[in-house]
Design brief:
GTP-binding, binds inosinic acid, Adenylosuccinate Synthetase, Chain A, domain 3, 5-stranded parallel beta sheet, alpha/beta, Adenylosuccinate Synthetase, subunit A, domain 2, metal-binding
Length: 423
């Protein structure tokens, strides 16, 4: 399993792609088109939002699990975009139990954020939160509902009953018509049908047959609805446990849990971020690291590496390994500060506080590590790295509590140092 160890955007697409050739199934288990993976294959760059990155590998079966929320219009346009570029997408499987992001959920996401004003979450505006809310409220629409018009109509009616009251009375918006939504959703049904499958059965049979199944988390640990910086989080469980519920695979079946860890820290949207930089260093990380969201085009907030967060990610996910990404971005700094602990109301704290108030008050305690100026993008092994880069990696590994098994030294597919195999 691969998942983000920070606030998302750690470079998961590259990590998944590295394993591409040896993996039989790549499974998304949560989130929706709020994710954004950039995968570079040769001189081609692909930006994926909803589809698993395994879609680019000809030998791999990409799977959208039951825990994912699917916007059908986004799904179909992402598929046709890939088809136009010659990518074969016919192997894709979509769980019939995955929930549909309906047009009214996108509307509710946007108006809610506007209504929250300065307390807004900074969501991607893709309807993710309202769709999961409907799921938990038991008024969600699932992929399988597209194939029973009567059931679909009843369910849309039930969902809109309350929503239209809220939209018209609270938000002063026009009510949404049931027929118009049903018609739009039915319009997608035939095109999606060939992909719909009992993915739980398929995946468990694949595991029994000793196939390699890769679970790919969207977002990151600190955006988890249970373990992240609530309420500034996404509405699903990107952490390791989410793969079991979101794909229907038992925890005993998962052998490796790999945390993707950026060599510094970024965050999109609102919420606390202790090591955030507001100076020229932050600007430089953003520029050199190309820190702009694949999905939203928003500039990412940037800061130094935070070892407290990395340790937390190791713990809540039971990480077995780290994939350290974007080490090359740090080339050129004389000293690189790393946050080793927090100071909260005058006290040194080594672990992530569970209290939201404490986390908002946390100030980073930095240790400066010596930097390097040599180009590292051509390094093929750990020994090829300059001594100070080696020491930076070793220090991060020691502080974070799990071995760093691969290091990204550039955006290209081959710009990766493999230390231990992930398979
Ligand atoms: P939502 O997932 O659209 O509801 O947004 C909730 C929070 O998660 C916001 O702060 C978003 O910026 C953040 N978020 C959602 N998806 C991603 C992602 O793929 N990378 C980074 N942040 C994300």
């Amino acid at each position: 399993m691969l998942l983000g160890a920070q606030w998302g955007d750690e470079g998961k697409g590259k990590a998944t792609d590295l394993l591409g050739g040896s993996v039989d199934y790549v499974v998304r288990y949560q989130g929706g088109n709020n994710a954004g993976h950039t995968v570079v294959v040769g001189d081609q760059k692909y930006a994926l939002h909803l589809l698993p990155s395994g879609i680019l590998s000809p030998t791999c079966v990409p799977v959208i699990g039951n825990g994912v929320v699917v916007d059908p219009s986004v799904l179909l346009s992402e598929l046709s975009g890939l088809n136009e570029r010659g990518v074969d997408t016919s192997k894709l499987l979509i769980s019939g139990n995955a929930h549909i992001i309906t047009p009214y959920n996108v509307t509710v996401d946007k108006v809610t954020e506007r209504f929250l004003g300065k307390r807004k979450i900074g969501t991607t505006g893709r309807g993710i939160g309202p769709t999961y809310a409907d799921k938990i409220n038991r008024v969600g629409i699932r992929v399988q509902d597209l194939y029973d018009e009567s059931i679909l109509t009843q369910k849309v009616e039930a969902a809109l009953d309350v929503k239209n009251q809220i939209l018209s009375k609270l938000y002063n918006r026009r009510a949404i018509g049931v027929d118009q939504v049903v018609e739009e959703l039915l319009g997608y049904a035939a095109q999606i049908e060939p992909y719909v499958a009992d993915t739980v059965l398929v995946l468990n049979q694949a595991l029994e047959d000793d196939k390699v199944v890769l679970f790919e988390g969207g977002q990151g640990t600190l955006l988890d609805i249970d373990h992240g910086t609530y309420p500034f989080v996404t509405s699903s469980n990107p952490t390791a446990g989410g793969a079991c519920t979101g794909a229907g695979v038992g925890p005993t079946k998962i052998s490796r849990v790999i945390g993707i860890l950026k060599a510094y820290t970024t965050r999109v949207g609102a919420g606390p971020f202790p090591t955030e930089l507001f100076d020229a260093d932050g600007e430089a990380l953003r520029r050199i690291g190309g820190e702009r969201g694949v999905t939203t085009g928003r500039d990412r907030r940037c800061g130094w590496f935070d070892a407290v967060i990395a340790r937390y990610a190791t713990r809540v996910n039971g990480l077995t390994d780290f994939f350290l990404t974007k080490l090359d971005v740090l080339t050129g700094w004389e000293q690189i500060p790393v946050c080793v602990a927090y100071e909260i109301d005058g006290k040194r704290v080594e672990e992530l506080p569970y209290s939201q108030t404490d986390f908002h008050h946390a100030k980073p305690v930095y240790e400066n590590l010596p930097g390097w100026s040599e180009d590292i993008t051509k390094a093929k092994s750990f020994a090829d790295l300059p001594k100070n880069a080696q020491n930076y990696v070793k220090a991060l590994e020691e502080m974070s509590g799990a071995p760093i098994s691969a290091i990204g030294v550039g955006p290209g597919r081959d710009e990766t140092i493999e230390i231990n195999s992930f398979l």
